[in-house]
Amino acid sequence: MPPAVPGGREPLGRVLVTGGAGFIGSTLAERLADRAEQWVVLDNLHPQVHPGSRPPADLAAAVDLRIGDVTVAEDLDDVLADVRPDVVIHLAAETGTAQSLSESTRHGMVNVVGTTQLLDACTRAGHVPGHFVLTSSRAVYGEGVWRRPDGTTFQPGLRTHAQLEAGRWDHGTDAEHVPNSVAGTHPHPINVYGATKLAQEQILAAWTGSHDTRLSVLRLQNVYGPRQSLSNPYTGIVSLFSRLAREGRSIPLYEDGEITRDFVYIDDVVSALVAATAQPPVDRVRTADVGSGVRTTIGDLAREIARYHSAPEPHVTGQYRDGDVRHASCAVDDTTAQLDWSPRWSLRDGVARLQEWIATQLD
Ligand SMILES: NC(=O)c1ccc[n+]([C@@H]2O[C@H](COP(=O)([O-])OP(=O)(O)OC[C@H]3O[C@@H](n4cnc5c(N)ncnc54)[C@H](O)[C@@H]3O)[C@@H](O)[C@H]2O)c1
Questions:
Q1: Fewer CB within 10 A of the end CB, N or C, for the chain?
Q2: Pairs from 163-171 (Cβ < 8 Å, separation ≥ 24)
Q3: pTM value > 0.85
Q4: Is the confidence at residue 233, as pLDDT, over 60?
C-alpha cells in the first residue's frame, strides 16, 4: 500500500511533463498520471540516462510519451499544437554536478535554453499554462550558511582547487553548516549545474510573473530510490555505493568521509510534487525545500549500505571533486506548513527498498 498522498483526489486537467521518462518523472507518473485528463511527456531519452535511448519498460500506461528535445523549438511546437497544458512540470535537465564543469555548454543549453525554448513555444502557441512546477536543486545554495562558535554566520564561497588539493575540506575549523532554507539562505551556487538551476528559477519567475500565472519551485536535496538510472555514472551516489557493496567491494569515500548530504527517498519527493501540483500557490509563486530534514555523512551512508550487503568497511581515499559542496541539508518545517507534507522515509528503510529494487534489475 503506497503512503497517503497529500493533495486530495481532484482531477488535474492536462499535464505536460518535460523529462517525464526519467527517475523522478516516471515515479511521479505512477502516482499521478491517472488523475490527469492527459499526461503528456516530452523526453529525448538521453542515452546517459536511458541505455540505448530505450524508454523505461515500466512507464505508467497513462503516459503519452513524445520523444523530443526541449532545446528544439519544433519538438515543443509539435507537442503544443495538440496539447494545451493546464500544468507544466518541468523536469528535463542535464544533472551532472561534476560533469557540468567540463560540459558547461550542454548544461547551459538544456537547463537554461531548454527552459526559454519551452516558454517561447508557449508564446508561439498563444497558450499560457495555469501553473508551472519546477524541480530545482539544493545546488542553488552552494555552500549555504555556516555559523561560528560566537553565533555569527557567513556564506562561504566555493572551495578552490588549491584548497581541496591541500586537503582543507572545511570553511574554518570551528564553523558549522546551518541547514538551508528558502527563508534563511540566499542562493549562491558554486558549480555550473547549480547556476543553471537558479537561472531556471529566475527565468520562470520572470515569465510567469509577466503572464499572471503560477509557479511552484521545489528545491530538491539528494534524491535516491528505485528507477534512478543505474547506468549513469555522473549522478546517484546511493545507487553507485549500492552497486559496489553488492559486488563485495569496499566503498571509497571522498575527502575524509565527513561530507554530509540530505538523502531523501523518492516517494517523499513525489509526495511533495503531488502536493505542489494539486494545490497551485495562492500567492502566485512558492519556493519550497524538499529533503528528509536529516543530515548524513557519506561515511554513515556507505556503512549502512555495506552493512546491508555484509561488504567490507568503506575506506577514505582523500580524493575530491571540484564543484562539490562540503555540506548540504535543509530544514523542511516551512514546506510542511505550506504543502501539508512531511518526509516519511528513514534512510535505513529507503536504502533497504533500493537494494531490493536493484536486485530485481541486476540479478
Ligand atoms: N535526482 C536528484 O537527486 C535531483 C536533485 C535535485 C534536483 N533534481 C532535478 O529533478 C529533475 C529530474 O531529475 P531526475 O533525477 O529524474 O533525472 P533523470 O536524468 O533521471 O531524468 C531527466 C530526464 O530528462 C530527460 N532529458 C534530458 N535532457 C533532455 C532534453 N534536452 N530534452 C528532453 N528531455 C531531456 C532525460 O532523458 C531523462 O528522462 C531535474 O530537473 C533535476 O535537475 C534532481
A1: N
A2: 164/320, 164/322, 167/318, 169/255, 169/256, 169/258, 169/259, 169/320, 169/326, 170/326, 171/143, 171/146, 171/326
A3: yes
A4: yes
